[in-house]
Write a structure and sequence with these properties.
260 residues; alpha+beta; 7 helices; 26% strand
């Protein structure tokens, strides 16, 4: 239960008068109700932000709560997945597996959130995040995503070195960066909604990530991202043209150049 405790003091000689005390008794229930309403709204906002992300939480609180409430947005997609996690899940005790997964999610998420990105969804052993373009340029959003990817890979490498030195199992991280138009909002059923992004760009990002293992790279970047990257384009190195599953034409893919 939520309660409120009040304490009052006065420097008046003789203390509070009877009239003062009666006034406080009359006002405190109303004041407590206001405190409770404000506190519960703050708690609710915090819970929504924890489970949905900052921007979706604010949209839900503003009334974006109906199925089909979606809008078209341009954004950079940050699609991450652990390599080799399925084998670990089959061999590790459950609690150890969850602790390890949380450590990896910290490595993936902190670089994104620290640069203003939005974690939209944790998907098994991966996550989907976006860097919005509405408040910044496409080139700047690409730079932020590229910096986040570079830091995430470096942080995972450090984590893996520590786990390996301790004789613990570890997994690799595969990342895909893409940019495109998304449908952003509520999808689902009448009784259960999910605030997410959908669209061809999301599918393409997931298919680019799937090529990381076969091509031997931990980071793959789309041709469209490279074209929008501005000055950050010089940090990228082409790895050739490749076919994405379900996409008719080959597309050029990139990775981070040495020293990039």
């Amino acid at each position: 239960q939520l309660g409120v405790i009040f304490s009052f003091v006065t420097d008046r000689a003789g203390g509070f008068s009877n009239a003062d005390i009666e006034a406080l008794h009359r006002l405190l229930p109303l004041f407590a109700l206001g405190v409770k309403a404000t506190t519960m709204r703050s708690v609710g906002r915090g819970l929504l932000s924890t489970y949905l992300g900052q921007d979706p939480a604010e949209r839900v609180l503003r009334g974006t709560i109906f199925r089909g409430d979606v809008e078209r947005v341009d954004a950079v997609l940050f699609y991450a997945d652990l390599r080799g996690f399925t084998h670990l899940a089959d061999t590790m005790p459950g609690k150890d597996l969850v602790r390890m997964l949380d450590d990896y999610f910290d490595c993936m998420a902190r670089p994104v959130v620290g640069r203003g990105g939005e974690i939209l969804k944790f998907m098994g052993d991966g996550l989907l995040a976006t860097f919005g373009i509405g408040g910044t340029s496409r080139a700047e959003a690409c730079r932020l995503a590229l910096d986040a990817a570079n830091e995430a890979l470096a942080t995972v490498a450090a984590l893996n070195a520590a786990r390996g030195a301790a004789g613990q199992p570890f997994a690799g991280l595969d990342l895909a960066l893409h940019i495109g138009e998304l449908l952003y909002g509520n999808v689902g059923t009448d009784a259960r909604l999910d605030f997410t992004v959908i669209g061809p760009a999301v599918n393409e990002a997931s298919r680019i990530e799937l090529l990381c293992k076969s091509l031997g790279y931990n980071l793959l970047i789309s041709e469209r991202f490279a074209a929008a990257a501005g000055d950050s384009r010089r940090r990228l190195s082409s790895v050739g043209r490749h076919r994405l599953r379900g996409v008719r034409e080959d597309t050029e893919l990139f990775t981070l150049a040495a020293g990039g």
